[in-house]
Specification:
There is one protein chain. The chain is of the alpha+beta class. The chain folds into two domains: about 1-160, BirA Bifunctional Protein, domain 2, CATH 3.30.930; about 175-365 and about 370-375, no CATH class. The protein has helices spanning about 10-25, 45-60, 80-95, 135-150, 155-160, 175-190, 195-205, 250-270, 270-285, 290-300, 330-335, 340-345, 370-375, and strands spanning about 1-10, 25-35, 65-75, 105-110, 115-120, 210-215, 220-230, 235-240, 305-310, 315-320, 325-330, 360. The strands form three sheets. It has a five-stranded antiparallel β-sheet with strand order 1-3-5-4-2, sandwiched between helices. Strands 11-10-9-12 form a four-stranded mixed β-sheet, sandwiched between helices. A three-stranded antiparallel β-sheet has the order 6-7-8, sandwiched between helices. The radius of gyration is 24 Å and the shape is globular. It starts with a strand and ends in a 50-residue tail after the last helix.
Length: about 425
Amino acid sequence: MIAKISHGSSLYGVLSYNQLKVDELHADVLFGNRIIEPQGDNPYTIEHLSRSFSDYLTANRKTEKPVLHISLNPDPKDCVTEEQFVSLAEEYMRRMGFGDQPYIVYRHNDIGREHLHIVSVRVDETGRAISDSYEHERSMTVCRELEQQFSLTPATKREWKEGLPLSPVDYGSGNLKGQLAGVIRPLAREWHFRTLGEYRAVLSLYGITVDEVKGEYGGRAYHGLSYSATDKDGNKVGKPFKASVFGKEAGIEALEKRMQASAAWIKNHKDIATGTSARIAAAMQTAGHDRVLFERELMRQGIGVVFRQNEAGRIYGATFIDHADKTVFNGSRLGKEFSANVFNDLFAGQGTVTGLASQQHQPEHSHTPEREEQRTDYRPDHKDGTARNVAAAFNLFAPVPGGISGDHPVPPQRKKRKKRKYGRQQ
């Protein structure tokens, strides 16, 4: 299990991040500690939850970043029950010294794995800061202990060094090129996929798509790839980036070699396909005709699914992403019982549930330069067009732009250089 601890200044930013996941059915509130319960059947809201933290933040004396945001990430191979997740969160917070603090625990089920997000504060009722000395080392020790207590898969030294599993791209957070690189490079280097369509399927779980581009530009023929960020509905946002900006491993030649190597690897590891098929079959049996339940059951077992649908809503493709073994399978390759027609019959009339878990019809044919220019201003040698976002000043309860901690520094304003005057001045 890997834990990530973030300190921030905006409670609203952290709560709104998690609430958005809840609204999109990517998360649910698991439980709260010292949290004021909503009346009746009313759900938790940002305003309601803020009341449970307001006294602590108001009493804060001098802690600049009093808001605490923790994510706990078991290995995708671990099937953790709801009761175990509750105990896991309680034990982690108690051993880290936050057991008596108010905190709310969210269970996220996006990108093919279930994990926890915990929101709390780093100051006690008197406003004094709770020590964060050797926080990283203590967290690693606690995770090792909890792995043994709950029989979880131990995180390797490499996993701890690399940090958290890959996170979806957030177009509004800025540094789009950096976000894309952080996903594309490890996917292209480490994952097993046999077609560009399978590669595109796993990219889609992280808010990215890739297009094959062929044609002629400046009198020279080219064949390459362009990568773009997508919104929650799979629509492209921002300008595309040519593959070369992410290194050779993201280019068409390297990917073709990767596909050939992956085909041989999958052939020699038939047990992985067999195990994935068994988990999908079990989820189908549990869910019946309920697509929501089917996708959630798969996520619990570390498997993501991408359904491709046409404008009429018919499912014409199904791709399964095994996060534990970093392998992508087209449904029909696993067997006729996992083909698109089977799932279309099972889930007829049911729309997409998890945002990026389904894709509208997108032809996979190559695009001409003229067509690309009209759609995305594509150029084979374009520069990084990522806009630089300047975060506004914020306070504890106000909305702020940015990531999960809501704590991005404001870049300094450049001063205009005064023109030097030559000659004698009057």
